[in-house]
Write a structure and sequence with these properties.
heterodimer, A: alpha+beta, Helix Hairpins, six-stranded antiparallel barrel, 6 helices, B: alpha/beta, two-stranded antiparallel ribbon
């Protein structure tokens, strides 16, 4: 049953005479290749283990970093730098403007303050004058009223005089000219009486003004209040402006400090267009081997046949994060500026600070 | 471009592996067709071939476990073939022959040390049974093992059937614990999709049942296996399975046919064993590449996938390990991967404890060692295997021969 499923397999090809030689050659070549490969693997494994161990224990390595103006960090730095500078300029202009405003307001306030005592003096003078002239005017007003009463009694006789004039004229006792003259005299008397009444009324007004607080006084007081208010408002405005000036001045100082710090950043060199500056990342574990002037070594295969290629010029304070060149883990550290005699060392995977890692 | 291509291939392999494992679990739990139909009334005559080399008393214990089989005693025989052991293995065979009279035990001995594969062929000469079961001489067999294997052959298209190999010494050392994980997942998960299409890529030589006619047909190929003129005595189980598949037969693992093997307990032994297995895998890849164009359209797609993917996975594992170590060597040591490892270890340990209490691992953290071993295995064993294809002396039981022809190879079988 099962044999029906069995498929025929072609018979084995009989080996030729040269086949053993061919096999022997292939095996020999294979063995050479295999031995070489295994030695390569062995060397590779040992090297890998050594490199791992070396970088796990070594505390003098640093990883050169080539910063570009188009890096994300550089672009971010540039953007912040430009924004900060713009803000600084805006604030400076604003502070100047505020200073001018405060000066102007102070002058105005001074002028108003100078006006206030004059106004008070004028008011006092008027008060004193009113106090002095008021009672006199009251007396004169009374006298005027009495005079007018007397004149009013006299004016009652004018009608009779006019009638007598007409009668005398009709009787031919007097001429028309005399009559006219007499009537004119009467009119003048009436007019004088009217003037006298007007004077009395005006005098009463004056008395009222002098002896009571009138609208005019209120206007003066209003002006005085307005003056005080304007001064108070100026005080507030000056206070606000001075506070703003203070705050903006502080902000300006902070920004100037930040910009001064930014000038110490490696990215400042990059965005400033200085391409001859070389940097390296130093992990905190290797911090003890870094100081300004420390020698920088570049090594063949990242660990042997090292030569001095420059010195550490500057140490930057800001923390940086980087990837370990061998273990590929995230590590914390800082950047240094290197003064390199051999710029190509900036492209090495690692350099060593202070000493050669393996003493050669 | 090249790294992208490598990563694409790796990603594809990972995807296929995930798919295969997920499919395995789905099939295992919900598809009855994934299991072969067993007919326990089908009881053909069986020859149990037991090649032996330097096993000592263990061979006696192995025959003893077979003698307790519940398969009809008159329907099976044990043919023990000693491959010129330098210890007292042969004497223990003869003692077993004398002691276990309830079954027929035949003992033979090779004229010269010939290796396991040829010892099986020599034992086959003494056999006349319809079904042949090749076993390792250091295994202990469940009484149902022969019955379970024979029942699967009621399906005419089945050519070879394997049993489930368990670990006798899971807690002897961390190394044995590692192998317990490997053996358990291999049989209970990895081979399930292959079982589904009856296209298991490698049946373990610990317990390998095959139709006699089929084995007779393949025997000349086994005897003539060579690598550029150098005889190949290793990996006969994978080779037999491959040959079975190429002849249009199905291959299957019956997890109810149980046997227990003592796995290497030290790293050097494990290294040697795994190197031999890997060599066999690599050799099989070359054989696959040579034969696949001819058979690709007649084989089941899953068979093709199994034959190609398993060895390719071993080679790609090497690339993965190199890429990982050169790219981000500490990535595997992060907290997230560690949690994943521990999670897998915990789940796997619990599963083994629940479903195979005999293999319960006392220290689940051994899974960590399994991962470390996987790295070493991927990185070095494949490379070494590729560079030692001409080797013949990596058997774990090789001892100094007092008089031999230098052709000495013996080994345990792959799961």
């Amino acid at each position: 049953m099962a044999t029906s499923l069995i498929k025929k397999v072609p018979p084995e090809v009989k080996p030729s005479v040269i086949q053993p030689m061919l096999y022997k050659s292939v095996v020999t070549i294979y063995r050479i290749f295999a031995i070489v490969t295994l030695y390569v693997v062995l060397v590779g494994v040992l090297s890998y283990g050594f490199v791992m161990g070396f970088y796990a224990l070594n505390t003098s390595w640093a990883a050169p970093v080539i910063l570009s103006p188009t890096d994300d960090k550089s672009l971010d730095f540039t953007e912040k730098l430009v924004t900060s500078r713009q803000t600084l300029e805006d604030l400076t202009v604003d502070v100047r403007r505020l200073d001018g405003s405060v000066e102007e307001m102070n002058q105005h306030r001074g002028a108003l303050l100078a006006l206030e005592p004059e106004l008070k003096a004028a008011i006092n003078r008027e008060k004193k004058h009113d106090q002095a002239t008021g009672p006199q005017l009251v007396q004169l007003d009374k006298q005027k009223q009495a005079d007018n009463l007397k004149t009013q009694a006299v004016m009652a006789l004018v009608k009779e005089v006019e009638a007598a004039i007409d009668k005398d004229l009709s009787a031919g006792l007097i001429t028309k000219g005399d009559a006219a003259t007499q009537r004119a005299a009467l009119n003048q008397a009436e007019s004088s009486y009217t003037d006298s009444k007007i004077s009395e009324v005006l005098l009463s007004d004056s008395v009222l003004e002098k002896t009571t607080t009138g609208t005019k006084s209120m206007d003066v007081l209003d002006k005085q209040a307005e003056l005080a208010s304007e001064i108070a408002q100026l005080d507030i405005a000056i206070g606000v402006a001075q506070k703003q000036i203070h705050e903006e001045t502080q902000q300006i100082n902070r920004l100037r400090q930040a910009l001064a710090t930014a000038k110490q950043s490696p990215y400042y060199f990059i965005v400033s267009g200085d391409n001859s500056v070389y940097f390296a990342f130093v992990p905190y574990d290797n911090q003890s081997n870094v100081s300004a002037g420390t020698a920088v070594y570049d090594c063949y295969l990242n660990m042997v046949a090292c030569k001095k290629v420059g010195t550490v010029k500057q140490i930057f304070a800001g923390e940086q994060h980087a990837t370990h060149p061998i273990f590929k883990t995230d590590i914390r550290g800082f950047l240094i500026q290197m003064q390199l005699d051999h710029p190509e060392s900036a492209k090495s995977k690692t350099v060593f600070l202070n000493r050669k890692p393996l003493f050669f | 471009m090249a790294p992208v291509l490598v990563w694409l291939i790796l990603f594809l392999c990972l995807l296929i592996s995930i798919f295969k494992y997920t499919l395995a679990l789905i099939l295992k739990w919900s598809v009855p067709g994934a299991t072969v139909k067993k007919d326990y009334t089908y009881q053909p005559a069986v020859s149990v071939l037991m090649p032996c080399f330097n096993e000592g008393k263990t061979v006696y214990e192995t025959i003893e476990s077979i003698s307790k089989s519940n398969y009809p005693n008159d329907r099976f025989e044990v043919i023990a073939q000693d491959d010129c052991s330098v210890d007292d293995s042969y004497e223990w065979m003869l003692k077993a022959q004398r002691d276990f009279t309830n079954i027929q035990v035949r003992v033979g001995r090779n004229a010269v040390n010939s290796g396991k594969a040829r010892s099986v062929c020599n034992a086959l000469k003494l056999s006349t049974a319809e079904l042949v079961i090749s076993i390792d001489s250091d295994c202990i067999f469940h009484p149902d093992a022969i019955r379970e294997l024979a029942a699967c052959f009621s399906e005419p298209k089945i050519g070879s059937v394997g049993g489930r190999v368990g670990v006798r010494n899971p807690n002897e050392s961390t190394v044995t614990a590692i192998q317990t994980f490997i053996y358990y997942t291999a049989f209970q998960v990895y081979k399930v999709p292959e079982n589904w299409t009856r296209s298991v890529g490698c049946i373990s030589g610990c317990l390998f049942a095959i139709r006699r006619e089929l084995l007779l047909e393949i025997e000349p190929k086994i005897r003539s296996r060579h690598w550029f003129g150098i005889p190949v005595n290793q990996g006969e189980d994978r080779f037999l399975t491959h040959q079975t598949l190429l002849r249009g037969y199905g291959t299957y693992i019956n997890n109810d046919a149980l046997c227990w093997t003592t796995v290497p307990a030290t790293l050097p032994e494990l290294f040697k064993q795994q190197l031999r297995w890997r060599r066999s895998i690599v050799r099989d890849l070359f054989y696959t590449l040579r034969t696949l164009p001819k058979h690709v359209w007649t084989l089941h797609p899953n068979t093709v996938l199994t034959l190609v993917l398993t060895p390719l996975g071993a080679l790609l594992g090497l690339l993965v390990a190199i890429t990982m170590l050169s790219g981000n060597p500490m990535a595997w040591a992060g907290p997230a991967p560690l949690l994943v490892y521990l999670g897998i270890a915990a789940v796997l340990s619990l599963v083994i404890r629940k479903y195979s209490a005999r293999e319960a691992i006392n220290n689940p953290l051994a899974f960590g060692a399994y991962l470390a071993w996987s790295l070493v295995s991927s990185l070095f064993i494949t490379t070494l295997a590729l560079c030692t294809m001409d080797s013949r002396d990596w058997g774990t039981r090789t001892k100094e021969q007092e008089a031999d022809d230098g052709d000495v190879t013996h080994q345990e079988s792959a799961p």
